[in-house]
Amino acid sequence: QDAEIVRTRDPQLLAGCDVVVDVGGEYDPGRHRYDHHQRSFTESMRSLRPDKPWSTKLSSAGLVYCHFGSQILAGLLGQPEDGPVVTALYDKLYENFVEEIDALDNGIAPAAGEPRYALSTTLSARVGHLNPRWNDPEQDTEVG
Questions:
Q1: H or E segment at 67?
Q2: Is 33 helix (H, G, I), strand (E, B) or coil?
Q3: What are its GO cellular component terms (predicted)?
Q4: Is the N or C terminus of the chain more exposed, i.e. has fewer CB atoms within 10 Å?
């Protein structure tokens, strides 16, 4: 609750962070590094948790959910982490919310052929609208 959030790609600043998410080019849960932006990264829920059926490549959001989702849900619900309520909710939240974020962030199309409709109001799209364009000379993310 007393964490300071630092938004940077500066490797020196990242090295001093306790947890790094979605930047840094490193996936190392032992050091709390949760980035999926390496060519060699292929992890899915199934590869990290063989008891789960989903094979969609994880985004950084999915990595954090994979490693901490059950613990967070258990704390919020006052239920055991390995109990049936937490397990069922964890699975439903991944299948109906987080998996979409993983797929969109990794460029996985919602259909094998031509999509029947546009997904214009997804969570990922809304977050993306808050970020500056990649070629915008003003990259200050704090300017609204």
A1: helix 60-77
A2: strand
A3: cytoplasm; nucleus
A4: N
In a domain, 115, yes or no: yes
- 139 band by pLDDT with thresholds 50, 70 and 90: confident
50: Cβ contacts below 8 Å, ≥ 6 apart = none
Strands 33-34 and 20-21: parallel
CA 108 and chain centroid, separation:
14
**Calpha distance 127→115 (Å, rounded):** 22
Task: Give the pLDDT band of residue 11 (cuts 50, 70, 90).
Answer: very high
Angle between the N-to-C axes of helices 84-93 and 60-77, in degrees from 0 to 180, rounded to the nearest 10: 150
Q: Could you give the number of structural domains in the chain?
A: 1
Task: Indicate the DSSP class of residue 44.
Answer: B
Q: Is residue 7 situated within a structural domain?
A: no
